């Protein structure tokens, strides 16, 4: 396989991209040609033979490697898309950044705050582009809510409440490595980091104090367990897997919470809460954002849903005073994935600004990881430590002006 590298196939014109890890999320690499016509996937890193074969079928022109070290030694890579399990993110990202390879890193940035800060420190040291795939900022529902807020329809944001009904939780998170605390830490990172980041985005602030509460209420009692070597989530997913207690084939290790709640105080005084349950019958997120002159709430979070605004005083009224349709895809977030990948390449090649910074990704990890620490230690309040000034200074160009002050994007 190294002959393909040495004969120049990875040094021709255009942006040369590697995909690190070929599990279920690796499909985002299929957006590369649409996101950047001069970019192409030329390499795949995957130690598992079955996953490697999936990579060959998806990208037949790509060279297959079994380790990141092999890829780096071969050379000829401009950018890498990292879609490996969460606990590997920090080590893989720092290795790639150290080799001068621009990194698109699937969220979460890392599974601990210490790991997240190590990745940011390496990006700052090497001045290599780092982008974290918080694609939900590009989702139509989030763009609609942000637009309503920026146009002043609810006044100044003072509180944000999020309810997350994870109806597919048993299939998505409890039948593979996601269920293992040593590989995920908490679903307040793997699942909720999207929402924590959006809370920060809508409220224009970062969490500085957090309290968590949660439990493994249902899936821990299911004893039907097995390894799923070579399988990915589409192999076992079915809406027929119901009710939740009837699930079979869970991961051998199940020690992450299936119900989690957290409360946050942001640096601008905004108060926020987030609740997540993995055994609801329905699957969607509900945001309520309360401002000084009204509130908004999304009903549905994909196409066909709406964002409603209440900004006149009256008794209970389900319809709201204003309504804004949610565009985009009817399910999932493929449109947001394409926009995110496009933004990544534009930032790498042209230095274009992005709507999410590595600092924002770090702050999502900080809030989620500390919430998990809190809930596992008697729900004690924990404060988020500040980033080192030199790291903050390095990423400051990715910050933007909003509502009259410098705020996180």
Key words describing this protein structure:
409 residues; Dihydrodipicolinate Reductase, domain 2; nine-stranded mixed sheet; six-stranded parallel sheet; 33% helix; disordered C terminus
Kindly describe this structure:
The chain has 409 residues and is of the alpha/beta class. It has two domains: 2-133, Rossmann fold; 137-407, Dihydrodipicolinate Reductase, domain 2. Helices cover 33% and strands 23% of the residues. The chain contains 15 helices and 17 strands. It has helices at 2-9, 32-35, 49-58, 68-74, 89-98, 113-126, 140-150, 169-173, 181-184, 187-190, 193-203, 233-236, 334-350, 358-375, 389-394, and strands spanning 15-20, 39-45, 63-65, 79-82, 102-106, 130-133, 157-166, 207-215, 259-266, 271-277, 283-291, 294-299, 306-310, 322-325, 382-383, 400-402, 405-407. The strands form three sheets. The protein has a nine-stranded mixed β-sheet, covered by helices on one side. The protein has a six-stranded parallel β-sheet with strand order 3-2-1-4-5-6, with helices on both faces. It has a two-stranded antiparallel ribbon with strand order 16-17. Helix 5 (89-98) packs parallel to helix 6 (113-126) and helix 6 (113-126) runs antiparallel to helix 14. The longest helix has 18 residues, at 358-375. The radius of gyration is 21 Å and the shape is globular. It starts with a helix and ends with a strand. The relative contact order is 0.16.
